[in-house]
Amino acid sequence: MNCLNFLNSFKDIAYQILKKADKPPYSKESSKIAKKNTIKNLRSLGRISMKEKNEEALKLTEEILKNIELDEIPLRNVALKCARLGRLTNNQSAMDLFRYELAGYPQGDGGLILTEAFNLARYVNRVFKQKDKVGVLREYIFPETVAELETETDAAKEQMKVSSDRDVSVASSNPGQYVMAPIGNSFERFGLRQTITEKSKKLNKLKSGYYNYALGVYYELKFGDIVEEIFEKRRKSVNKYLSEKLPETLKKLVSVYENLRSKSEEDWANAVHSCRRVIKDVADLFYPADNSEIDIGSGKKIRLSEEKYIMRLKQYIKNKSGSKRFNEIVGSHLDYIGDRIDAIHNASTKGSHADIKREEAERYMIYAYLLISDLITL
Questions:
Q1: HSE on the CB side for 364, CA within 13 Å?
Q2: Which of 49, 203, 237, 296 is the most buried (most CB within 10 A)?
Q3: Within this chain, do residues 344 and 219 fall inside the same structural domain, yes or no?
Q4: Span 23-33, mean pLDDT?
Q5: Residue 290 has pLDDT above 60, yes or no
Q6: Which residues pair with 130 in a beta bridge?
Q7: d(CA 132, CA 129)
Q8: pTM of the model
Q9: Burial 137-150 (b: 16+ CB within 10 A, else e)
């Protein structure tokens, strides 16, 4: 419910772009796949695309923030919009939270708020600490719905308008008699002021919680668009370059897409193998194996052989880039990717099984795209 997961969402956004990318019909097999996907797309006609949903959600967040900042609508209406925002972003916790805000928080048999609902209430500042009868500091929430708080506040304000004391004049014909003015409605006004102050404080807490929720979603969607645009630009440049220089390698990327759609760990491992072959093809293009030796420090030398494709790429980057920092960053990524991909490859060639999750396979595909994008700009 906040925007701190921006960097973690990069993989998901990038993979969604890759899944939506058009695949060229390089072979009969890929043509069949394209036809199958076309049929699938036809069946989904009329559904709102994820991009359209995100655009609608972003527009709604801007509307909610404006409503709160300018105090344009009652807070109960803001809660309804927040509930809709949760639905548009497929956030079940947000949908539950604002349903409770509008309809009340569910209670158990003992009259206590359910734990899950209690924890959700923290996000809109309902939780407060107070000492119980024996002096122990405990957490509580105020359970009134936002509509109840607004109704009670408005009623108290209206009542305050008619609770003023009338102008009266009191006199006595007896000069020895002390006459007092009537007490009036001072006690009533005091009680109403307390009610208005108490309810207004709670409403302000809720307003702050609603605002923070909408602001978090706003930044998340905004940053998501930026990441999507950046990766989309890189993906297109890599695909264009490979189609011209290494068309067979681009076919291997197509096979990566298909393997990642599978539910089989074996297919996910095959996707990693394909990523390895893609990176190796790129290494063969930029720095072919020549079996020459290079000094890697501490008096150690390494031969740039066929299988040392990661080291060949690092040497290529070192020769082409004048930035030491760029060499260090890209080189460290290459070492990480190469070590893990080679470990999976070596395990498969020895007949053993390497544990591989879909998320990890997706990550290597994205790394491969980013790496190639860096290489072709040198």
A1: 31
A2: 203
A3: no
A4: 44
A5: yes
A6: 138
A7: 10
A8: 0.56
A9: eeeebbebbbbebb
- Report residue 344's pLDDT band, with 50, 70 and 90 as the boundaries: low
- 171 belongs to a structural domain: no
Find, among 21, 13, 55, the residue nearest to 37 by Cα: 21
CB 141 within 8 A of CB 128: yes
pLDDT in tens, 345-369: 665 554 445 567 888 888 888 888 8
Residues 266 and 147 in one domain: no
Q: What per-residue confidence (pLDDT) applies to 178?
A: 64
Contact partners, residue 105, CB within 8 Å, separation at least 6: 113, 114, 117, 118, 121, 141, 143
| Judgement on whether residues 223 and 299 belong to the same structural domain of the protein | no
Q: Are residues 294 and 205 in the same domain?
A: no
Host domain of residue 207 = 49-162+186-230
- In this predicted structure, what is the pLDDT of residue 18? 54
Q: Are 219 and 2 in contact (CB under 8 A)?
A: no
Is residue 47 very low, low, confident or very high in pLDDT (cuts 50, 70, 90)? very low
Q: Which residue has the tokens 């923030």?
A: 65
- Max Cα–Cα distance, the chain, nearest Å: 125
Tell me which of 230, 259, 282 is where a domain ends.
230
**Domain total in the chain:** 2
* Identity of residue 311: M
- Which of 9, 79, 19 shows the shortest CA–CA distance to 49? 19
Closest CA to 373 of 270, 309, 271, 279: 279
Phi, psi of 357 (to 5 degrees): -100, 160
Helix (H) or strand (E) holding 354: none
Collect all residues with Cβ–Cβ distance below 8 Å to 59 and sequence separation of at least 6: none
Write down the pLDDT at residue 366: 86
- Tell whether 214 is covered by a domain: yes
Asked whether residue 267 falls in the same domain as residue 147, the answer is no
Does 103 lie in the same domain as 57? Answer: yes
Whole-angstrom Cα distance, residue 113 to residue 140?
9
Q: Would residue 312 count as lying in a domain? A: yes
In a domain, 131, yes or no: yes
Phi, psi values for residue 271, rounded to 5°: -65, -40
C-alpha to C-alpha distance for 49 and 55, rounded to whole angstroms: 10
How many angstroms separate the CA atoms of 303 and 281, rounded?
Answer: 18
